[in-house]
Amino acid sequence: MLGGMLTATTATHCPYCALQCGMNLRPVGDGVEVVERTDFPVNRGALCGKGRTAPAVLSSRVRLDGPLVRRPATGRLEPATWEEALRTVADGLRGTREEYGADAVGVFGGGGLTNEKAYTLGKFARLVLGTSQIDYNGRFCMSSAAAAHQRAFGLDRGLPFPLEDIPRTGCVILVGSNLAETMPPALRYLTELKANGGRLIVVDPRRTRTAEQADLHLAPRPGTDLALALGLLHLVVAEGRTDEEFIESRTTGWAEARAAAMSHWPAQVERITGVPVPQLREAAAMFCDAPEGMVLTARGPEQQSKGTDTVGAWINLCLATGRAGRPLSGYGCLTGQGNGQGGREHGQKADQLPGYRKLDDPAARAHVAGVWGVDPNTLPGPGRSAYELLDALGTDIKALLLMGSNPVVSAPRAAHIQERIESLDFLAVADVVLSETAALADVVLPVTQWAEETGTLTNLEGRVLLRRRAVDPPEGVRTDLEVLNALAALLGWEKGFATDPEEVFDELRRASAGGPADYAGISYRRIAEEDGVFWPCPEPGHPGTPRLFLERFATPDGRARFVPVTHRAAGEETDAAYPVVLTTGRVVSQYQSGAQTRRVDELNAAAPGPFVELHPRLAGRLGVAEGEPVAVVSRRGRAVAPARITTGIRPDTVFMPFHWAGEGRANTLTNPALDPTSRMPEFKVCAVRLEAVRPQAGPAPQAGVVPEEDPAPRAGTAPQAAPPVGGGPAVSGGPAVGGG
Ligand SMILES: Nc1nc2c(c(=O)[nH]1)N[C@H]1C(S)=C(S)[C@@H](COP(=O)(O)OP(=O)(O)OC[C@H]3O[C@@H](n4cnc5c(=O)[nH]c(N)nc54)[C@H](O)[C@@H]3O)O[C@H]1N2
Ligand SMILES: Nc1nc2c(c(=O)[nH]1)N[C@H]1C(S)=C(S)[C@@H](COP(=O)(O)OP(=O)(O)OC[C@H]3O[C@@H](n4cnc5c(=O)[nH]c(N)nc54)[C@H](O)[C@@H]3O)O[C@H]1N2
Ligand code: SF4
Ligand SMILES: [Mo]
Prior knowledge:
Blueprint: E1 4-5, E2 10-13, E3 22-28, E4 31-35, H1 49-52, E5 68-71, E6 76-79, H2 82-100, E7 105-109, H3 115-129, E8 134-136, H4 143-153, E9 171-175, H5 179-182, H6 187-195, E10 199-203, E11 216-218, H7 225-238, H8 244-250, E12 251-252, H9 254-262, H10 266-273, H11 277-289, E13 293-297, H12 299-302, H13 307-320, E14 330-333, E15 352-353, E16 357-358, H14 362-372, H15 386-391, E17 399-403, H16 407-410, H17 414-422, E18 426-431, E19 443-446, E20 455-458, E21 463-467, E22 471-472, H18 480-490, H19 501-512, H20 524-529, E23 533-534, E24 560-561, E25 580-585, H21 601-606, E26 612-614, H22 616-622, E27 629-634, E28 637-645, E29 653-657, E30 671-674, E31 681-682, E32 686-692, E33 704-705
Helix pairs in contact: 2-18, 3-18, 3-19, 4-13, 7-9, 7-10, 7-11, 7-13, 14-19
The structure holds ligand MGD (2 copies), iron/sulfur cluster and molybdenum atom (MO).
Iron/sulfur cluster binds at residues 14, 16-17, 19-21, 43, 47-48, 50-51, 183-185.
Organism: Streptomyces gobitricini
Pfam families: Molybdop_Fe4S4, Molybdopterin, Molydop_binding
InterPro entries: Asp_de-COase-like_dom_sf (IPR009010), MoPterin_dinucl-bd_dom (IPR006657), Mopterin_OxRdtase (IPR006656), Mopterin_OxRdtase_4Fe-4S_dom (IPR006963), Prok_molybdopt-oxidoreductase (IPR050123)
């Protein structure tokens, strides 16, 4: 049963990814159903299975419908009144602060939160808690691209042009994006590109559904995109295909960047990446032959301990060929979460104030403190990045308020992070479901979801849109804004934390005014009338800015900055004991930590559990057949999931999706090596070994396995048989699917 219904059909947006597809919701029976909404230009009615089935998560069968408090007597989470739950949270946060100081209280947010929530959460941390210790899961998402954007262009908006420009450019290099599974309705832009005669190059170690659409698929070894991009730039220079006029008039720093690229010889790049020189040449020629071109990156090249430099190298390629700051050309990042763009602009990031202002900039502090009516000196300074914050739980940080993330499943080195979370004195989680992380909390606050509340989100194009309430929430839940308002009041802030999203948005507009991400001219009414408004939009009369950088870049001198970058190894390279590369990512039917989508029957039927994707040669040496359990072991831990055998992956690499908890949790294995600039963990590369897990009792015969060939052998890393590890759990019966 849903709490209640508004009667008319409502035009709104999907709860999940950054495409923010438009949909209509129509009341039906005791729920709502999704009906096609063709007037929203981004998806023109198309939806993926997750969006189509999203109303299932509104049902009381799967969601939280009242607060839970952990009872000392039983040690269990049990139902409580809102009054008791909120008081317990306020006492927990206040008590920690009084005992250990303000920075002993942490806040962790999410890129799925609306702009209004992200803004309020940041304000709550800085004013009410007075803590510097706030960060969010976007750090795990597009932070490397954001850092590279800032460095090169002086501004970070994921796509500096609307998606509708893609079909009209000449050539797209899509790097580490599996769009066909992660944003299915956006695949249309690539098919239209090809129909218009444009070319598509996909860079991915796996032949994904997206790579199958490509004119040219380059399959580098994970973690080597930086060398690949530099190799392409080397060829572009060597073949005289640079755009000297553009370099001269619109950029700085070319000499150094050029010299850095020229030290990456094609043959050496082939050795590092495994991509043959003729393919490198073909890619460089395809990109330069087209009159316009774009490079689009997603998590593949970004979630690396050198993600910022890697994106920087792709940007250098765009700048050197004049494919930036011009119509139908440029570099863009495909941001991931529903509000992945807006969520990184309004102050839930450790170093940031609303409007994409910097927390250590005195003018920014003065402006925002003015809007908030406080003395700028009372605002704390920058805090720790997401992984560092989670890693400090239980030691420096004793209490945590978590809103919009499920790190037990999604954080790197997850067993360690889970243990850190368990060692907290106090954990409060606001969520719509009892996620794996919420299950560890002292207090769980059940909140309203997408279709039950109104708020703005900024999609991957920088288009600010309005997600409208379409259904009444059930009685037992409150909005995140109401939760923050009530907690603020209990902690002595009766005013300043509005519960009406439009009122919060109007304050956010003022706080962002004059900042890089300027929303001052955007209003709920305007968004409703125009298909969303692109920031920056400094005044009500301003049309918004779909295309950035056409006249000048956002640097002080208006020129884009080349950055001299050189290739370096991954945080953890393969060796004799861990001879295989593990990379991780997504499948079409599950979303993120799976907290929401694992509760939808249709999606579970399509993607019931984790798996280990591996090449037949690797499977053969291991002696596992399709569907049989495989143990994947890294220096962080061990995971077991059924084998999925495919020739569409490099023989030296295995892939696991990260959507599940339990035995098949991919993040038990991942390496939290951080990018020095963005503090992004290395989700896309770590070293593992594989073991067959024989499904029977008794001492399990296990075979260590190494890849048959390492296309990029390094000194001292000659493959040899890994010693089998005993003591692993023998799996009985069918495939070992963890979580669910
Ligand atoms: N179905 C679904 N859709 C989603 C999400 C979801 O969880 N499920 N999440 C949303 C979010 S938050 C995000 S961030 C986006 C992510 O969207 P994507 O970036 O498209 O998703 P991933 O599967 O993480 O990674 C993309 C590809 O990178 C490849 N890859 C792995 N290692 C490397 C490497 O070293 N180099 C290169 N070039 N490629 C590599 C993988 O093989 C994979 O095919 O998706 C959004 N959409
Ligand atoms: N190995 C590996 N790990 C990865 C990645 C990878 O590619 N590989 N990708 C990383 C990336 S790109 C991302 S974005 C992260 C995402 O990982 P998480 O941060 O765990 O993201 P979600 O699973 O979306 O978690 C959101 C939680 O908030 C709840 N929620 C949803 N909406 C709201 C709301 O409005 N309010 C509140 N209070 N709660 C809400 C959901 O029910 C869910 O429990 O995972 C990262 N982890
Ligand atoms: S592509 Fe993304 S926004 Fe569109 S329906 Fe699917 S999950 Fe929702
Ligand atoms: Mo993401």
